[in-house]
Amino acid sequence: MSAAAAGTWKLGDVTVNRMGFGAMRITANPDRSVAIGVLRRAVELGVNHIDTAAFYVSPGGTLRVGDGPVRYANELIREALAPYPEGLVITTKVGPGEDPDRGFYHATTAAELRTQVETNLRQLGVDCLDVVNLRIMKKPGADSIADRFGALADLRDAGLIRQLGVSNIRADHVDEALAIAPVVCVQNSYAIDLRGDEDALIKLCAERDIAYVPFFAIAGGSREDGAATNHSDAIQAIADKHGASAQQVRLAWTLHQSPNVLAIPGTGNPAHLEENIAAGTLHLPPEELASLN
Predict the structure, then answer these.
(1) Between the CA of residue 58 and those of 28, 65, 77, 139, what are the distances in Å?
(2) Which member of 29, 42, 74, 190 has the lowest number of beta carbons within 10 Å of its beta carbon?
(3) How far is the C-alpha of 8 from the C-alpha of 56, rounded, in Å?
(4) What φ, ψ does residue 187 adopt, rounded to 5°?
(5) Which of 56, 72, 190, 212 is an active site residue?
(6) What pTM was estimated for this model as a whole?
(7) Phi-psi bin for 28: left (phi > 0), alpha (psi -120 to 50), beta?
(8) Which alpha helices (DSSP H) does 132-208 contain, by range?
(9) Tens of pLDDT, residues 150-208
(10) What is the three-class DSSP state of 172?
(11) pLDDT digits over 72-94, tens only?
(12) Cis ω for the linkage preceding 182 (within 30 of 0)
């Protein structure tokens, strides 16, 4: 079993296995040793792309769960994996943030974005972040990301960031960002039952050698609440045929959409981690993909 079984794609000037790991859920368990074990096992299984954020924190936080002492995903990653193995790419995101006075907020100024970048640097214990996604609140109609993305491009030029991406965006945002600096990935919500207009965006990204990194591939409409349980008859039938779980079918379908799609399933459960990695070996023939579509 290896994350390499899902194949590889490029994040700008680095190549990663298409099966990666999302760190949002590792903060939920108050026992830090469980998260440490999951992260180390992920790397043992060939994961070389980890997605995280400074605002992934429990208790409370994005997951709205947990008790015990405060646990930040970035700090757990540092504790588990530093000094980081060669070839490991840690992608983080800025925009959303946690502030002692304001609580959860969205950075809109260059100063706020720099503070968030510096927080990620400190928590991860690095001098330069591998990839930083600008995460926005996507709105209908026209809204510019030029000022915010430009601020991150300045931090890249200053040596604090190596490569840039965008998250929760529309296709026109990709064009706007590319006019400022190279974009190595687009990270949007996408699943069998959460597709929206994303198929066209995946194709656009592929044409431009940009990785498309879906979140909620397993959760679908359940989003932050975790793995979906309301699977369609088609998903369940294919899972039964292959002796796989419905979650594995969801992941396999995701990877089958395009070679530039990178999966980042997240879990704090060691058994689920291995199940997710194994989904990279699940081949779905055209007739099964058609039934899911």
Answers:
(1) 6, 7, 14, 28
(2) 29
(3) 27
(4) -120, 105
(5) 56
(6) 0.95
(7) alpha
(8) 146-157, 171-178, 198-207
(9) 999 999 999 999 999 999 999 999 999 999 999 999 999 999 988 888 999 999 999 99
(10) helix
(11) 999 999 999 999 999 999 999 99
(12) no
